[in-house]
Amino acid sequence: MSIKGLDVSEFQGNVDWAQVKNAGYQFAMLRAGYGFRTPDQQFQRNASECSRVGIPAGAYWFCYALSPEDAKKEADGCLEVIAPYRLEYPICYDIEQASITYAEQNGVTITPALATQIVKAFCSRIQERGYYAMYYSNQNFLETYLPLEMTQQYALWFARYGSRYDGLDYGIWQYTSTGSVPGIAGNVDLDTGYVDYASVIRKAGLNHLDSKPTPPPKPTPPSADYITYVVQSGDTLSEIAERYGTTYQTLASLNQISDPNLIHPGQTIRIPENSSSASQYYTIQSGDTLSEIAQRFGTSVNTLMSLNGISDPNLIYAGNKLRIS
């Protein structure tokens, strides 16, 4: 069995997950965060979008623990971040040389025994909470710090860059850090899976999949009667409705939203084109870029610059209105 996958973090920016899916990728591992309750800034969007387009996803948390007690706290932070999302792949602890370096900078020497205790503390906490646990590292780190027999307790995601699988006992192989994937700018880590974790986890009743909503239906392609808007962090349905001169009830009905208080970043919402100014204007939000707005509305940066008399695409301001069409 060979399953095509990739892993991403906030360093990949806003990923176009529909393009990733169309390119044939079958699973994704998403960085949820690192250290003591520090979430990855793109995790919410990545997890929501993977669910929306139908890419089974798992999560990983980078280790900065100095003790098994720290590792348990990191696991608790990870669990808080991933709790709202439907994750069909393992929850993984990423421990590597940077973890050792951080410990040394804080006066702690990580021995093989301590490294083993740290990984087991994190993974056991993940398992206690009903999730499928995994650990990640590279060949040099494993040979130096972690016993091979630990793969009998927890699944291994193994990083070794090369062109051929070496037959070792691991479930996911990260084989390059310089991959190229449609919908993602720059280099991407690429992976091959040798276990259908989505089926394994589902059959075992793990990751609380029964209590998580199924992925929402794919949005209807926009027609002449609608425009689309991608929900941003902090948006509410009533604010979006006010922005486009309609009502939240109209948007809820049009988009089959049963609870108007439950929308999530990355979700695509249809808006009636005959709403006041809906087809013409967009109010810039904090953190927006002109290229992201152009992509969201299916237009180009040059078109937006021309329509709005913008000479420098890097100078736009939250609260200003952009003419879209």
Automatic annotation (TrEMBL):
Transmembrane segments: none
Highest taxon above the source species: Bacteria
Pfam family, any one: LysM
Matching CDD domains: GH25_LytC-like, LysM
An annotated GO BP: carbohydrate catabolic process
Domain LysM span(s) in chain numbering: 227-271, 280-324
SMART domains: LysM
InterPro entries listed in its UniProt record: GH, Glyco_hydro_25, LysM, LysM_dom_sf
GO molecular function: lysozyme activity
Family as reported in the entry's similarity comment: Belongs to the glycosyl hydrolase 25 family.
Protein name: LysM peptidoglycan-binding domain-containing protein
Species the sequence originates in: Schaedlerella arabinosiphila
Lineage: Bacteria, Bacillati, Bacillota, Clostridia, Lachnospirales
